[in-house]
Amino acid sequence: MFIYIFPIICACIIVATSFGSRQILPLTIDGIINDRALDYITLSFAFAVGQVIWGFANYIGGMVADKFGDEKALFLGIILSALGCYLIQYCDSTIEIVIAVGLLSAGGAGIAGLAVAMSAVNKKVPEKKAGLAFGVLNAGGSLGQTFLAPIGVIIIINYGWIFALNCLSLLLLLTLPLTYFLRDHRVINKSSFDEKKINILGMIKLAFQTPSYNFLALGFFTCGFHVAFISTHMPGVIAYCGLPTSLSGWSLAFIGLFNIIGSLFAGWYISKRSMKLFLS
Question: So what CATH class is 2-182+199-279?
Answer without folding.
Answer: mainly alpha
